[in-house]
Please model this.
Amino acid sequence: MSRGCARKSATSRDRRYEPSGASAMSSISSMKRWRTTPFRLFLVYTAIFIISVGSLLGLDYWRSAAYIAQQARNIIGWEARYLRALRPERLPAEINLLSRDVPQRVNYYGLFAPDGSIIAGTIAAPPPTIPDDHFLHRVEANLLPAYAGDVADALAMAVVLKNGNMLVLVRDVGEITQLRDTLLRSMLWSSLAIALTGMGLGWLYSLRQWRRIRAIQQAAVRIAGGNMSERLPAGGRDELALLANIVNGMLDDIGRLMGEVKSTSDGIAHDLRTPLARLHTLLRHLLQDAAPKDRAMLEQAVGQTDQLLLRFSAILRISEIETMNRRSNFSEVDLDELLHEAAELYEPLAEDKHMTLAIHTEDTGRILGDRALLFEVLCNLVDNAIKFTPVGGKVMLALSMTPHGPCVCVSDSGPGIDETERESVVQRFYRSPGVRDLPGSGLGLSIVSAILHLHDFRLRIASANPGTRMIVQCWPQVSN
Model:
């Protein structure tokens, strides 16, 4: 039965009245950091930063490599123009002179007759595929002399002179390629270092923002749990601090207004309870000596004063509970024992109405709480169940263990509570239209809600088909 109660409460369309304490704190602690806005902004800005730095360094590399290659082309073009401007009889000697400058091993020269025979220089043969277009073309390294060594890359330009001879200039660009590769590696390592530095700084900043948001969340949870003296941390001058200052100002105004309303209602209840008690006593004295024709009216007056005294006592009781020091009187409570005591207390009342009062419990261990207050919760729930259940009905008390902790369920076979009213029944003085003629103050569930709020427990109101199911979800705070 208790398992079914817990299962139905989880699947039915019910209203939940839960404090923001333990459950909200657990949701904050279980929040994944990668789901937070600071972390997502960190990822976005890191991606933008890496793309920007990579693009900038890539552009710099491309421009540097293009500049180096262009310089090599300019040098070969300048030398080609210089050699072509020499007199034909002087050109072979100049080429041989330039070819003897071998330590640099960068530029190589060759002068060939129209039949392909070498006239001057160190190039073995004219490249067969290079046109006379004054542009640089890649050539095989086997055209170069042996002392050129292992040439990885070479560019050549061929110029046909006026006398029909061919001037060939070859430049070893292997060093340029190595320089370009070195520049590329340097830029890649620089990009990696800059990206890691940026990511580290961004992570530290996002961690700082995460801690600030977490502190604000925890303060908001404490405020929602009833600590109206708590304020949001407002250090700094950014938008979070501005928002915290605005909220703190609102909390100051709300606290002041709530204090005024509470002190007014408590003062009225306290000041009127004594005159009402005296009026109640006076009416009872008059009732003892009243004539038969006046007795019915006096009995009605006594009943009305009883209701007023009950309501004022309930108001003061709620105020007393709300001002209690949280957990000051908490101790280990056995819910199984508490349910049996409540059932034993209300069993005679159920028998008077020819009702069945059943109980089913499981071993749920102990919880931390105020035993007297939790017993008052059970008494209110059982009293309501018996009061609103017709003669011959059934009331069931169940205690079960759920994944969230112990669960107390009080169900009845009465008329039930309409879904549209389930939020209103915990408000002060609210009574459903169909039960306003029954005795009561309309504050029983308000007291229950205040006590559960003090314990950070949850109240659910669901349908029992027919009837009402009141479910108290407790949090496991003490093991067996």
User: Anything to note?
Assistant: The chain has ten helices and 13 strands. The first strand starts at residue 15 and ends at 17. Confidence is low (pLDDT under 50) at residues 6-30.
